[in-house]
């Protein structure tokens, strides 16, 4: 795994958890708006929107660099639309990145011929 690929996966991983948290907070704010006088939906909507756009941009970059198949790319996109999916995406991306780094080191040391 080259440096740019690892960086693309890291960026996607780092934005996935905050995007999931912002989605959950937006849902909570929506409920509070309808049940109380508290209205933070415009602020949380904007925060979540920015984080979602960053996620999609980083997802497209990672898809381009890692050369995921359609199923893997679709999985990471669907996880961004589910309220807690970003947490699962973060864990899966962490494992994928670690596996790629280990394989790259093994190739560099001559353990794996590829």
UniProtKB/TrEMBL annotation:
Q: What is the membrane topology here?
A: Multi-pass membrane protein
Q: List, alphabetically, the Pfam families matched.
A: DUF3817
Q: Where is the DUF3817 domain?
A: 9-95
InterPro entries reported for this sequence: DUF3817_TM
Tell me where on the tree of life, at the top rank, the source sits. Answer: Bacteria
Q: Which UniProt keywords apply?
A: Cell membrane, Membrane, Transmembrane, Transmembrane helix
Q: Which GO terms describe its cellular component?
A: plasma membrane
In which compartments does the protein localize?
Cell membrane
Is the keyword Transferase assigned to this protein?
no
Residue ranges annotated as transmembrane are 39-58, 70-89
* Full protein name: DUF3817 domain-containing protein
> What organism does this protein naturally occur in?
Streptomyces antioxidans
Lineage of the species this protein comes from: Bacteria, Bacillati, Actinomycetota, Actinomycetes, Kitasatosporales
């Amino acid at each position: 795994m080259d440096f740019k690929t690892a960086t693309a996966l890291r960026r996607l991983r780092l934005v996935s958890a905050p995007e999931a948290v912002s989605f959950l907070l937006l849902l909570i704010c929506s409920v509070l708006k309808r049940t109380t006088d508290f209205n933070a939906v415009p602020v949380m909507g904007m925060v979540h929107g920015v984080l979602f756009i960053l996620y999609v941009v980083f997802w497209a970059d990672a898809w381009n660099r890692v050369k995921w198949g359609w199923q893997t790319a679709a999985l990471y996109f669907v996880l961004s639309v589910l309220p807690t999916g970003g947490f699962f995406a973060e864990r899966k991306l962490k494992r994928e990145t670690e596996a790629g780094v280990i394989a790259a080191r093994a190739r560099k040391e001559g353990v794996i011929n590829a």
